[in-house]
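Hey L., structure's done. Input below.
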Amino acid sequence: MKNILLDCDVILDLFLDREPHAKYTAYLLSQIDLQKLNGFTTAVIISNVYYILRQISSHEKVIKKINQFLTITDILTIDKQILLKAIQSKFKDFEDAIQYFACETNGQIDLIITRNTKDYKNSSIPVLTPEQYYKSAQ
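Output:
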């Protein structure tokens, strides 16, 4: 079973029902719920999702959505060593570097799912958009 990291933009696509992207993220989450994929994210991603959703919704509604999401996904560890690797890396986006090195350090993430693939050009872990993953699974 593949272990995938779901990046912030992908989670927001679902929660904000951003079409056409939301349907591809919904497919990924259904595969996680059916235990055909293992879904992962990071505390940084969850914090960012909360911050963005909180701008348009109540604390209670946002927490409910995040809690539901966390019932089927796991959280990768981020520690000082991961932050130092991110700082010293060639990634142009610091936040994406953190996600990448959390995946690399975990050692079991097979795929990073993001719509922001250009920021992961230095990744040794394959990177796909939700739509690319969906089409490859059909």
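The mean pLDDT is 95. The domain at 2-137 is CATH 3.40.50.1010 (Rossmann fold).

-- N.
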